[in-house]
């Protein structure tokens, strides 16, 4: 008893406020202080270090990829048969100005294709023939003569390399390129034809800006990048003053692979870190200022004050939201009561909120459950009363007396020579026997069809074979269960109203098909049809509608209601009719009692 009271006291609104105050204010503040004390400069420095290592690794891979593209482009030109053919036949066309111009343009066009589709970034490709021809994708208006070019250091070094690639930096005033840009240049000597037949120098010049992002070029983060050759010469950098220069030896030694070294650079304390390109003897180095670390520490302190302020604001918001813990469950309970008022008995409210609200919600759910059970009991009692009424209607005539009388009439007719009358009485007796022999309300479609055939035989005897009954039903559908006397009242309605009680000939067709888990059984006639006014009277959802056809007190609405009593409101009759064309009554039944193959 005491434990129950203690549990309830901890679930009250006041206790919830105290719990939230501890959970969302005191505990977070304590955690925040602990985290702040555990935060150290070494942890932040390690984070910066790992970030820079990842940056260098990513950048080195990108640079290597672009260098590979330059090498692939040079190989493509060196292996081009057409260029080999044109340059090899130089003596044949050098004196024909027209052909000379055409062939030069053809070679330049090939170089331009390589530049546009293979060369990464913006740059120029130049092919220098030692016999006096220059093929270039760049403008040659300010270019040097062949003799002047042969006196350049890079040209002599390329010839000495004897076919190997020679790399050099062009910080400014680059040959065959824009003078105000810096370039990473690659030159190699191509040999075509027989030995010393003729030689060509292939020169690639790629802007160093192609290797750097816009932020790195602008030095937005204060980081300086240097791509160094084996001798320490700077090939690529966002510090243009260093391109083509050698990095000081103390800085070169500080550029250890994946190691951070503190240095003085340009009068500022900072860190140097190196990263060796995996497939070249080049090194990518990065310099960053110590102020970055100081800024990170200052930012961490600012974040601390910001978080503290956010927690204060969050506390205010949580106090405001706390009221929702009470009002929201009550609001759900209110909506549920409204839904119950509209007839929704399946509504249930989730238990939430303080103890008082949970108790109220629990009582509401129990009330709805008891109300639903009471309504279900009333429905069962109603079904029993309807079934009893139906059985009482069937039992109004003493079956034994009726069968004995009909048997006497039949033999009297035979003895009098009226075989036609005897046959009618015999079929009527069989029809009534089927009607009375089943005490249960559900029978198979097969039994219903037998009952319907006897009824049609009697009508044809009466009206001189005016009616034809056609069955188009799957064999398996005949094992479906339907309420007794379902088909006969529908067919009788067709005869009485569609064929005017024998005044016209007609055909009645029974069809069936599966639809999902249901079976649709349709009764079609080609009679007079139903007028729109009469169709309005056949609205089965009207409680005052008695139905159109009567036999022993059972009409179409009675059939519709009995189907719904057995199977639910989604089943029953649907009537469609066209005046002077016919009427179709569709019966929707669940597929109980038989397994149907869907057509």
List descriptors.
ATP binding, five-stranded antiparallel β-sheet, membrane, elongated, 19% strand, transmembrane, single chain, 599 residues, Beta-Lactamase, Bact_2-comp_sensor_kinase
Give an overview in words.
There is one protein chain. By secondary structure, the protein is α+β, with helices and mostly antiparallel strands. The protein has 4 domains: 66 residues, no CATH class; 248 residues, Beta-Lactamase; 63 residues; 153 residues, 2-Layer Sandwich (Heat Shock Protein 90). Helices cover 51% and strands 19% of the residues. It has 19 helices and 17 strands. The strands form 4 sheets. Strands 2-1-5-4-3 form a 5-stranded antiparallel beta sheet, with helices on both faces. It has a 5-stranded antiparallel beta sheet with strand order 7-6-10-9-8. A 5-stranded mixed beta sheet has the order 12-14-15-17-16. Helix 15 packs antiparallel against helix 16. The C terminus is likely disordered.
